[in-house]
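### Sample
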Amino acid sequence: MGIGERLKQERELKELSLDDIQKETKIQTRYLYAIEQENFKAMPGNFYVRAFIKEYATVLGLDPSELMEEYQQDLPFEQEEQVEMSRVNSSKKNKITTKVPAIFSLLPSIIVVVLIIGVVAVIWLFSQGFFTDDNTNQEAPVESENNSADEVELPPEQEETNASDDEGANEESSEETNQPEDTNESNEESTQQDENQEEEPSTTVTLNQSEDTTHNYTVESSAEELQLSVTSNSRNWLEIYDGNGEQLYFDNLTAEASPFETSITDLESLAFSFGAPEELSIMINDMAVELPEDINPNQPQNININIQHQ
């Protein structure tokens, strides 16, 4: 006796119809009939054979784990899982990662440092009287020549006027010396703002390929932590695996149990399988993994995600 015949006998003993089972499991009647006939090729994919049989057995009051172990050799899902995971690993190996050279990321900081050094050098030259001394030295010989050629004494009133002019020139020179300090402070503030903007982490989600019910994505993130959050608006079967094939989630996700959250910081790839795609929301660091608009909402969907840490 196969697993399909076993489920059918249990259903008839409990005097239940396929429609009754459909109402409890939300699995379409044609898939329930295919399970009883062991026509697994009629299923949406071998990946879902195990999930649908577990739901069917639970409604009939059977132990899903014991039933799956007893009829393990009759089910095709073992081979399908190995093929699916090999596809994920192959996609990961074939993905060409591009990283920006380190020199380009340091270039803005180098330019800012050079500008700061230049401003400090100008301020130091002003404070040392580098620019004012040149003018004084150039004017001194002229006065000396005039004094040697014509020894003329200026009237007292004219000497006072010249003294006041010199004081005014010194005040203007001191004001000009203070202006670069204000410029230096504004440059330092803008530099700190630019550095803060450059250091903000970012996460992007890109759809690379979509074919029928399988969709491949790439997640690029510079954040130190990556958080996965999955929310369902109704009862929805959900399976999540990491790149090593280990289960992260394998159960029905309901609105009451939502969201399912877990850290994926150390992972390099993920694989999702679920039904009712319009009722499910997948977020990675608050970035939505959006399905294409032309999918069939009545078919289960598969998502493969390649994670790149920057």
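Residues 126 and 263 are 57 Å apart (CA to CA). This sample (DUF4115 domain-containing protein) is used throughout the tutorial notebook.
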